[in-house]
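Q: what does this look like with uracil bound?
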Amino acid sequence: MTQSITHYLPLLDWYNAMGADTLFSDAPRDYYQTADQSLSTLNTPKAIHNHSPYDSSLTVMPAIVTLATPTKPSPIDLSRDSAKQGRAPVKTGLARNDLGDAHPARACTTLEELRQAMKTATGCDLVKAATTTVFSGGNPKADIMLIGEAPGAEEDRTGEPFVGQSGQLLDAILATIGIDRTMVYIANIIPWRPPGNRPPTTSEIAYCLPFIERHIALVRPKIILLLGGVATKTLLRRDDGILKLRGELLPYTPLHNDDAGDTLILAMPTFHPSYIMRSPSQKSCVWKDMLILKELRARNFSI
Ligand code: URA
């Protein structure tokens, strides 16, 4: 007996809630079964444990300290006097990725090499379900680099970061201070869409961290704008969360890339556009952060 379409709507809702929100073809296909051999050997939890670069032999994170712990600057006071010069020990679950020189990010000396290394990476299960590797968007010569969390459905389809709803809001936020995508460079902590837009796991982040750190080292922006809690926690490795850190100017200190150079790269956490969509009352905070960015640009990023 043929059922009417309404009969199937609850099922579609359920698929959607489980994260299966994209139709790729008419017939179902198990991507885990059809993945190439090198990927399929990673399928069992045991194999994942044995092959994984990050779980079985994590070293204790070296005692990384930030150079300074600035207090929240106001849009009109960006002087170094507004910064506390204390040293703050940092604790998070992230350890240095022990793949070391074997990590595919390590050998990349150009953005194109990095793009290829990420496109062919197999060390993270997210690549199996993702359609594309979302590498970057915007202008690689820009002084400002925006770093989000991970691609969503639209980004996975198009290969461009921040092209869905949160991307439209991001464009509107940037426009408030007169900048657009030709004046910023955009990447994500994770280049592959987590199924159903779930948050990335610590081990996925640990695998991707050398990629984004190498990405920053190759672009060498003057400031990185960290969009949301995942980008903030991953790249700053601080106890404090986004609610406490947003709007602060902090020195960026990579965990890998010992060749990162001496020039100070500033980091400023701000709320992720999708958080603003859920909590519009927080828009004013992002507005304040944008004013800080505007002021910094006007000063050519010297503080
Ligand atoms: N959210 C992100 O963090 N990154 C994107 O590219 C899109 C949405």
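The two ends are 72 Å apart (CA to CA). The chain is about 35% helix and 10% strand.
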